[in-house]
Design a protein that fits this description.
Elements lengths: L1 H6 L4 H18 L7 H14 L2 H18 L6 H17 L7 H15 L4 H23 L1 H4 L5 H18 L4 H5 L3 H9 L4 H22 L3 H12 L8 H18 L4 H16 L1 H4 L2 H17 L1 H4 L7 H8 L6 H16 L8 H9 L7 H17 L4 H7 L3 H7 L5
């Protein structure tokens, strides 16, 4: 309570120190703050009405951090009644070219993710405003005189991130907004932008849209896939690794939704992903290596006939990467791809069988029964193929814990 009182101090330096300290406390205390949410919100929104422009940014940060910390606990009418009206009033005051809108866009992103479907009542005006900001900035980039202001990439980045937050939170609840807007074309333009930060946020939004609204992306699917693949095949990969990571993830999300429609670019993407897996130590980026392994698996799942003839060139490095990934639905997709390729070309994985067994043993538990059965069939297929002690020879190369884990597949 003492810290909250200091937030409302008349001295600007005390305000700044108290609000920053409270944001740190929020990160540490997380959901423990839930029982005190009402009084915290009252103090923060009182500060919001009182602070001058410079310190207002710190309040936005404290509100956003609070939303991240307490999550869905924030989604109660009494709390929203305190929180949202002042923020919306400020939102309406600021123009599309006012830099003071940046921290507000970031704050709304955290609130949207915390509220989930509770954000739906605020979604339409926020969605439309983000679209308008992106359009006005693209005009300013092309013709600042007509736009009346200079281009600033941060407006686009913050708007794309907020749109991602809304799409993630509301899922199918905003399909009409997506279908009736020109979001698809704007996102494609942003994916082609010469500024890496803009591309990074655009590909994150593309991946979110692919999961939920792939049908709306279809008319420009070849262009999305082409520009995404280009992010993986660049001599400057290390400098734009976050862009590559999001582009890679987006390709994988598109693959599982559009299936065979991805086949024209499957070989191109494979040829970009394999070097990433083979040089994973040099890249030293766990997230990109994991996403590359998952996307390669997703491509293999939907077009095994295209990738399987080449599998002996990448099985070892791919299986090493797969064995580092925690159990989740994306890992399931990747292993569906592995099983599909092995069915098409069992001899292609033979030289990497030990690595494949280690990858299978990396599962704590395959909860999907169908996939569990597919993995069993793959192992039993090799056991039958490798006669005259050859199977036992392969098994003897495995560490005891790996062999023990394979027992659950009855081999």
């Amino acid at each position: 309570m003492g810290l909250l009182r200091r937030i409302l101090d008349t001295n600007k330096r005390v305000q700044e120190a108290a609000c920053s300290a409270f944001a740190t406390l929020e990160e540490e205390a997380a959901e423990d703050l839930a029982p005190r949410l009402e009084i915290i919100l009252q103090h923060l929104m009182c500060a919001f009405g009182k602070y001058q422009r410079r310190n207002l940014r710190i309040v936005y940060d404290a509100i956003g951090t609070l939303a991240d910390a307490v999550g869905a606990e924030l989604n109660k009418p009494a709390y929203l009644e305190i929180l949202m009206p002042p923020l919306i009033a400020k939102w309406q005051q600021l123009s599309n070219s006012d830099k003071d809108i940046f921290p507000l866009l970031e704050c709304f992103t955290s609130i949207a993710q915390a509220l989930g479907t509770g954000f739906s009542q605020f979604a339409e005006p926020v969605f439309q405003r983000c679209i308008a900001i992106i359009q006005s900035q693209q005009l300013a980039k092309a013709d600042p005189v007509t736009a009346g202001f200079l281009y600033d990439k941060e407006f686009i980045v913050c708007s794309l991130d907020l749109l991602s937050g809304i799409v993630e939170s509301l899922s199918g609840g905003i399909e009409s907004l997506v279908s009736q807007s020109n979001l698809r074309d704007l996102v494609l333009q942003c994916c082609m932008d010469d500024v890496s930060d803009v591309r990074q946020s655009a590909f994150a939004l593309l991946g979110d849209l692919a999961r939920l609204f792939a049908a709306h992306l279809r008319p420009r699917l070849p262009e999305f896939l082409d520009v995404a693949a280009k992010q993986l095949n660049t001599p400057k990969l290390k400098e734009t690794i976050s862009v590559a990571n999001n582009a890679c993830w987006a390709i994988g999300e598109l693959a599982v939704k559009v299936h065979q429609e991805i086949s024209p670019i499957a070989m191109t993407v494979m040829s970009c992903l394999v070097p990433i897996l083979q040089h994973s130590e040099e890249l030293n980026n766990k997230s990109l290596v994991e996403n590359s392994a998952i996307t390669l698996g997703r491509l293999a799942w939907v077009c095994p006939e295209i990738l399987s003839p080449h599998m002996e060139h990448f099985m070892q490095s791919w299986c090493i990467a797969l064995s580092m990934i925690h159990d989740d639905i994306e890992k399931e997709d990747a292993f569906r791809g592995l099983c599909a390729m092995v069915r098409k070309n069992p001899s292609g994985a033979l030289s990497s069988l030990v690595f494949m067994c280690k990858a299978i043993a990396s599962w704590h538990e395959i909860r999907n029964e169908e996939l569990h059965n597919e993995v069993c069939q793959v192992l039993h297929g090799y056991k039958q193929m490798l006669r005259n002690g050859a199977w036992d020879q392969y098994m003897s190369a495995l560490e005891p814990p790996v062999k023990e884990k394979l027992l659950k597949y009855q081999v």
